[in-house]
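SAMPLE LOG
Freezer: B-3
Tube label: C17
Construct: single chain, 256 aa
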Amino acid sequence: MTQLSEWKLGTGEGELDITESPRVEGNITGLIVKSSVDGTPEEVGKENENKQNLFDSKTSTKFLARVKPSVNNPVWVSFRLKEARAVRSYSLSAANDNPDRDPKNWIFQGSSDGENWTTLDARMGETFSARFQEKVYAFSNETPYLYYKLVITANAGSPNTTQWSEIKNGTGGGQPVNPPPIDPDPPKPADGDVTDLILPASVKGAEGERDGHVMSNLFDGDPSTKWLLGGGRAYMGILSAGGGQNRPLLFPDGGG
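STRUCTURE (predicted):
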């Protein structure tokens, strides 16, 4: 039996961004309607540090708002799902610098219509012990909501800026015992990452995939999915949008 979770490719112009597997169970990042992401505006002139970065599965990017949050003037982000789900856990990841910009106090809310909100979880006095650290928060919820929102009412002390790198949401209970911080100096993303150039229709390989764990999962940017092949010699080939040869990747006999 052979299995992989992700396959990323680069042109050799930098290091690939290899992130840890999500610690939120039932990750539903793929259900977020990216055009629905709303919230506190980005800093003028730094639109690349935007809210959509919170959902790209890369701690090397971030959302930065030039706001010192308070109850009356919070930093907030909301989003809509493609279909209602009962979220029971979420995680926040610290950004790359300035620990005083980290979120400290916040509430997490759900809504069926995007207007009337129910508070599902509230946190106060939270800290991140290292840059890029991911912390998971679990709570009880049996109601499927279409909209969710994070409302930050205090940061770790910065007088004018709040930032973080990722938010993940899950339908499972998560792992509320937070793991040790990850490497504070992780590899930077490759300028030459060509994963987005892969033609999905060109992905081919050995037959015998099991339990819906299909080969296309290797290129979906989600380490919680995988390709699983039962028995025999595993191989695959891809073709980029820019053309070129379809070269196979071979694996030894994986057993039965």
